[in-house]
Fold this protein.
Amino acid sequence: MELFDALLATSHWREAESRPAQGQVSAALTSAALQAFMRGGETASGEYVTPSKALENMAILRSVSLISESIGMLPLNLMVSGLEKAYATEHAAHRLAKKRPNEYQGPYKFKSTMQLRALLHGNAYARIIWRGNVPVRLIPLDSGRVTPKLNDDFTVRYEYQRPDGGMITLAARDILHIADLAEDEHGLVGISRVKKAREAIGLALQAQKAAARVFKNGVMAGGALSHPKKLDPQQIKNIRESLEDHHAGAGNAHKWMVLEDGVTAEKWANSAKDSELGDSRDHQIEEVARAFGVPRPLLMMDDTSWGSGIEQLGIFFVQYGLQHWFNAWEDEWALKLLGDKERDLYYAKFNEHALLRGTLKDQADFFAKALGSGGSQPFMAANEVRDRLDLPKSNDPAADSLQSPLMRKTNVPAETT
């Protein structure tokens, strides 16, 4: 009824005010129910699914937060192209990614917020503030207020509706647009995974509600005592008090019960209906995992998968769950924050090594071979290894060159006597 009341109120408002004053917004038009209907819609399960509503499901909250937090914590660097690997530390695009995107967000909060919106809405937008040809700030915008459109000359413009109702048009260079896969004609607008998976999400939310109703309205007794004859209220009270005193609680677990005068006990098992509810909830978690590309064990399921295989599971998640987003960020960062000539000199790159580190033993074996242990050709310098381990550089000149352990020994100067 809330939805129909909002629609009715909107109709009356339109009749009374055929042309509202500029900046005036109807209370009915901002109704949560009306927004839910316009942006999500009712599913076959009877559940209205919107991005905000979807986060009430723990599997979706875990999937979205896991991806968003991973993108937020990983460094996004502007690199110098060429054989010499180096960070473009003096470039404005590097400083925005590493230090201060805007006055009220650090790099982690900016990236994780943008990624959250891209996952829920399919698109995340940030206004680029320029000082001449230098980008100086990135201001996130509400995804629901921005609409990308293609001009007649095949350039792109972005129409942004301000909170006061006014509309402004921004050029493509003024908007950082992190988009999911697109299915529209020109590939401008990313799809919302929440909207595409709304039927599966609706089932998950309804199954969650059904489980809650079991605890609210269901009979939770573990069993029953029966007697061949009718008992008076005092006898029932005596039996109940005796059970609570001698058999209730963890301290009385597995004590033997003595029944007399024809009383029999019957233990109630979980019904098939209860089991089906649990299976349904597990299945919906799988559906959510498929939609967002998150392995089931990372949603805190399948305890048997933890252990020796967790390292490979992490690699799987990075390659098939995060790599898509790495590319989306890197492409857009270079496209919008670098000039045409600069793209030949620099490129954006996420450093995902923090998520790919193995155990300490695995790291030790890898770095030993990288330095040339066991007669292998060295392919890392000592200072490169120290940088991977977040250790300060060594002042030894040899630490910046590729040398095998044997070469290092021969280069050690003899002690003076």
